[in-house]
Design goal:
This protein has five helices and no strands. It is mainly α. The chain has one domain. Helix 2 (32-54) crosses helix 3. It is globular, with a radius of gyration of 18 Å. The termini are far apart.
């Protein structure tokens, strides 16, 4: 069962790569912010029907959770808008390498300090070397 989650994460990564190209082309035709808006609108409609037919949770918690926990959608807007802007300029792979580098660096910081209620996992030399290699990868993907 442990193998299921990495496989699902790989499928999610595949979806993000395809989404990058699809949204990049949408942004070229509609405009960066307009393309991001259209993408979020379609996603919102899809989630509405998913919640309607399969949801078992409680949407009313929106009134009781700490307000910082509601910023995920805003952060999604930042990511999606930057991806819509970047993919047509540098391509899907270089954009995703940069996004993944940002995710891993911020993830390591969040883990190291246990931010946002997460567990604390110290940053060690091995992880710092891996982050350094991410920057090498980013350079190689963008250097012609």
């Amino acid at each position: 069962m442990k193998v299921l989650f990495p496989v699902l994460a790989i499928i999610g990564g595949i979806a993000v790569a395809i989404q990058g190209q699809v949204n990049g082309m949408l942004g070229k035709k509609a405009g960066v912010f307009e393309g991001a808006f259209i993408s979020f609108a379609v996603g919102t409609i899809a989630l509405f029907f998913t919640v309607l037919f399969f949801g078992k949770g409680n949407l009313s918690v929106v009134a009781t959770v700490p307000k910082w926990q509601l910023t995920g959608g805003l952060l999604g807007v930042v990511y999606l808008t930057i991806a819509v802007f970047s993919v047509p300029k540098i391509g899907v792979a270089p954009t995703l390498v940069a996004v993944i580098a940002g995710q891993i660096i911020m993830g390591a910081i969040i883990d190291h300090f246990g931010l946002f209620g997460g567990i604390q996992i110290p940053l060690d030399l091995k992880k710092m070397v891996a982050i350094g290699l991410l920057f090498v990868s980013l350079y190689l993907f963008n250097h012609k």
